[in-house]
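[RESIDUES AND BACKBONE]
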Amino acid sequence: MQNQSYDEVKFVEIKNDGLDRAVFDKIVWINNKMNFQNHVGVEVKEVGKGYAILQLKFNEEHANTIGIAHGGVTATLLDAAMGTAAFTTGKDVVTLEMKVNFLAPGKIGSVATAEGRVLHYGNKTIVTEGKIFDENGGLMALATGTYFVMK
C-alpha cells in the first residue's frame, strides 16, 4: 500500500457509529496506510465519537520465548486503539507517550479486542485510555496514552 493514493486504498469493513463521513473516511485511509499495524494483523472494527474498537488474532509470529503474545504486540494493539480513538476528533495526531499495564497473557490462537477512548481533548494534546480483553471478556492489559495534535 505504500505508494497508493487516497482513491486507491482498499476500504475495509468498519462500523461507523455516527462519525462525520469525512472523518470516518480519513480514519479508514490512515489505518490502511499503517504498514506495521497491518503487518502485525490489527483490524479496526468500529469507530465513533471518542472511541475505537480493534481486534487482533494472536498467532505464532506474535509469540515470545515462553509461548504467549509478546508485550510489544500487545502495546501495538493498545497504541492503535488509542490512536484511532484520538483520530475520531478529526485531528492528525502522533503518539507522544504511553504507559501499559500487562495483566494477563495473550494466548496464541485467541482473538483480543482492544477499546480505545478519548479522556481529554486539548488544543495540543489528546489523552486516551486503552483496554484489551480476551475472548471471555477478561481484562488482559490497560494503558493510558498522550497524543500530540499536529497543526
In short: The two ends are 25 Å apart (CA to CA). Residues 71-87 form the longest helix (17 residues).
